[in-house]
Amino acid sequence: MTLAEMPFILPDLRPASAELFVLAMACLILFVDLFVKDTRRTAVFALTQLTLVGAAVVTWAGTSGEVVYTFSNMYVHDFLADMLKQLLYLTDIIVLFYARAYVVDRPLLGRGEFYTLTLFATLGMMVMISANHFITIFLGVELLSLSLYAMVALNRDSATAAEAAMKYLVLGALASGLMLYGMSMIYGAVGSLEIGEVAERLQAGVANHSILVLGLVFLVAGLAFKLGVVPFHMWIPDVYHGAPTAVGLFIGTAPKLAAFAIVLRILANGLLTLSYDWQMMLLIMAVLSIVLGNVAAIAQHNFKRMLAYSAIAHMGFMLLGLAVGVVGGDARFTLNAYSSALFYVVIYVLSSAGAFGMILLMARAGFEAEDLDDYKGLNRRNPWFAAMLMMLMLSMAGIPFFVGFFAKFAVLQAVVASGQIWLAVVAVIFSLIGAFYYLRVVKLMYFDAPADPTPIQAPLEVKALISANGLAVALLGLFPDTLMWFCLLAIRLSLSVFA
Amino acid sequence: MAALHEFLTSLFGAATPTIWIVLQIVAIVLPLMAVVAYLTYAERKIIGFMQVRIGPDRVGYWGLLQPIADALKLLVKEIIIPTGADKALFLLAPILSIVPALAAWAVIPFSDTLILADVNAGLLYAMAVSSLGVYGIILAGWASNSKYAFLGSMRSAAQLISYEVAMGMALITVLMVSNSLNLADIVRAQGEGIFASHGVSFFSWNWLPLLPMFVVYLVSGVAETNRAPFDMAEGESEIVAGFHVEYSGMAFAIFFLAEYANMILVSALTATLFLGGWLSPVSFLPDGLFWLLAKISALLFFFLWIRATFPRYRYDQVMRLGWKVFIPLCLVWIVVVGCWMMSPWNIWK
Amino acid sequence: MDFKSVVFYLFSAVLVFASLRVITARNPVRAVLYLVLAFVSGGGIWMLLEAEFLAITLVLVYVGAVMVLFLFVVMLLDINLDRLREGFWSYLPLGATVGALMALEMGVVIGGSYFDLFENRVPALVTDSNVKEIGRLIYTDYVYPFEVASVILLVGIVAAIALTGRQRRQTKAMDPAQQVLVKASDRVRLVSMPSEKLEDSVPQAGE
Question: Is the pTM of this model over 0.95?
């Protein structure tokens, strides 16, 4: 058969139109960037934002509730993917607006590559979210990670950034290696890499259990690395701290959504039969993360580092939701448990974006508002911003009637429903301990005298956005039902258990 | 041939296949060495004529024994190992540079049936093996513990890697149109086509439809062998002799052998891939080994000709040509050939 | 043991030995060369499995290109071996214990059952050329991961250029084309002006 005679079958591209759009636009922006002389890169920034809006429209147009596979079942298009992608675009748009002034002030960061790498990272996350095959999961993770490594190092004159990038790269590569090794073990035991098929063959019970579990351990370790939970959390504080704040904001928000997606797809869709094994691992990691994250955060004086440890604690909390889905072989609780975890991660991303946004807002050329002391007396410098940051902090601490409370509440409910009361108790106790460091920020803002009493100025769109972000935390706290309903719907429509 | 094989079987019994292969290898390598020797002579004579001087004429008639005299001289000279050199690697380097130059000959088809290893992925094999030659040069430069040698080896490593990319991409079009990686199949595919059916297979060979790639391959071939005008690695006028400045005696001779063997190899590959290998250009003349030899000789003459004609490139120009001219050109041409093959005007059916 | 097994064990032994030497060789250049040897023996093992495309590509890409660049970098770095090795012996007992424990645990978990895997899985032999078969799969079933992988490479290029490509000029060389185009009026401007006191602004030539 010669080349010309080979049948040429185009795969169904429609489900993946958002990915194709983002890829095409990213390449276009690379070209446009070549010819843009403007050092502020306004055109590149605008095009990037337009791409994200366009992708949202494309995704919206393709949303149905059905599960569609394409590219030889390597790609899945379902409601969960659509919802996470929309949240991803939204997060990206917010991140880019927050980061705009910061990167323009810093010539090394504010080049076109910042925007194109953001788009490529976004593409990587989209691939992760829609992955239905271990290979695509791995490639998505790598696309995301590679873009992030480069973004952390973009500010190459900064020694801390270079150190953070190096640590991130080395540990990230190690995590990828672990994940890949785990995948290869599972492939060896099951004979397939496609998630649906892995689940089927596991159910048929032909696989060698010990090899499966060995693979599972490596796989979960790799995933835990990417999520940043104890004991695979070492990179988080250094990277959050060392990365330029604009990049830290990006790392601290959007990738959590994608990581949630792959964890759910691998563990809940593919390896549900092994739930006894991986739930144990997740539980241990979750408890350790909640304990270590909350305790270590208290000792921090750097706001970014504090947020890093808070991220570890939050991811632990999220894992709690994923770890209690199946009780004694009964999958009755999965819907509530997984949707509470989804709800948690969405809320975390929202609050975390706001908190990092405040750091970016306070930073100026040549000054990073990283220390907690920089927030002293914020109320006297700008009462509105202080109020917004207070709401974000209170929500993250889980004070009732902010949305963070409902997120924690939903997860705890799922934990209690699974009958593991002691877990809920531990989680609550350490959340209370954790509330200390959030409230400390509030105390600094309202009861301490500012070191530098100059009022804080910000561009209008950033002001509007941070207000919207802060108010959203409060409003969602009053009306959490809609988002919760969407989370339930996404899990119910997309997980194979409910098909 | 068959009779010889039978005779060997009666002589050696079960060990015959091994002996047979060894004999074949010897039959390739020995003439190759002779060709290398006389290629150096040809080079001096031809460049001499081009520069209106006589060239070697003292040893034997018209200087015909000059290569022998050179070889003898090098044989009896001492191999000096510089102080601080890494002795093992210093001695390993020349071997690493000659072995790939010889090993790649295994897949070159001399005629329809005359081929040492008729493997499916012959083209890939040839590329892989010839890409190993760079180790000899790099190690020679490093192990010599001399800055000129080191500079030369760094230059040559960068140059070889750059041009390997262009070369590989040029080959992609060849394997696209031949629909095979087997070198013999590639030659056979060139014997078919509209012109070939009219008796002038010369115009059906790959050089015409893939002309830009032919040029890219040929020029990259010159660069790959570190020949003028791409002889930055030696650069006598700036870094005395580059990577082999510290070598003497036989070690030096082996580098010399490797360079010329590589030249012949690149010529043979070019002849096979673009100029129809053993095929005759016109149908009233028979195909055969002598056509391949004639093509190789013509290409070798071309190598010497451009050495006598062009001044040496500057280093950044070499890199610019490789990365900014050849590679984009190849990328475009791959797409062009792809579209051509899918269009109704496809001439390679 | 047939001939194939002998070759397999030979290649494997060389592979293991070379890999060991990669981490124990005193000289980094030699370590890289042992890595090259390891790649070549790995390629040999693949060749035994009739995956000639993978084998040759391994040699072509890793040995022929990647490792050359690796060697390049290692040669240019001034690595102080003694300082690198300072902690080696003091950390060795701990490292060796951990490593041995891990190996032991894995052994216990997997037991003898792992080797059964090889028995019942014969590589699917392709009748046509290996290369064609891989090409067909890559452009049909695996087109999506293949394209994503190419995007990853693109990001690699973008990242490398973003991290290294400084905007400053590397050389002070003149562009002859620009030099030829220069006019006298670009170089010198003669201004007639009345004499002034020093503190008055002096017009700059060449503005």
Answer: no
